[in-house]
Amino acid sequence: MEMSEDDINTEEYPTEIHDYLAAFEKSLGSVDEMLKTMMSVSRSELLQKLEPLEQAKLDLVSVYTLNSMFWVYLATQGINPKEHPVKQELERIRTYMNKVKEIADKKKASKLDKGAASRFVRNALWEPDAGSEHTSKTPAKGKKRKMD
């Protein structure tokens, strides 16, 4: 008596995890496609097109991905990756990723335009004219100070 492939597949694992396995298989397909895309262009050719900060980001993402895949491999082999040196390596890479992010954020931060800032301050400050003093009919809002 031969079993169909579907019968064999459902006997190999509990049916409750079928959706999880299907999603995992789909994710693996996405990773495979991304790797094929990245591998289709030579590394030196790719790096020439990028700025140094973008090169650093690419290198960090690549090495983080490799270490993450090794983490998953260890887990599938029954080895606790939290007790393996790969955990420290992932933390080290994350530290560098944060440093690169800080550099990118500083680069994106707007630069102070001193001319525009001085015009803004000058126009925002009220300067009374000597010939046309206007007194406000409404009392000033805010804290009143006691004069000594």
Give an account of the 3D structure.
With 148 residues, this protein is mainly alpha-helical. It has six helices and no strands. The chain is elongated, with a radius of gyration of 31 Å.
Question: What keywords describe this structure?
Answer:
mainly alpha; 0% strand; 148 residues; 64% helix; elongated
Strand content: under 5%
Distance between the termini: 107 Å
Count of helical stretches:
6
The largest sheet, given as strand count, sense and whether it forms a barrel, is: none
Average predicted local confidence, pLDDT: 80
- Sequence of secondary-structure elements: HHHHHH
Basic shape: elongated
Low-confidence segments, given as residue ranges, are none
The value of Rg in angstroms is 31 Å
Number of E strands: 0
Q: State the helical fraction.
A: 55-70%
Summing up helix and strand content along with how strands pair, one would put the structural category as mainly alpha
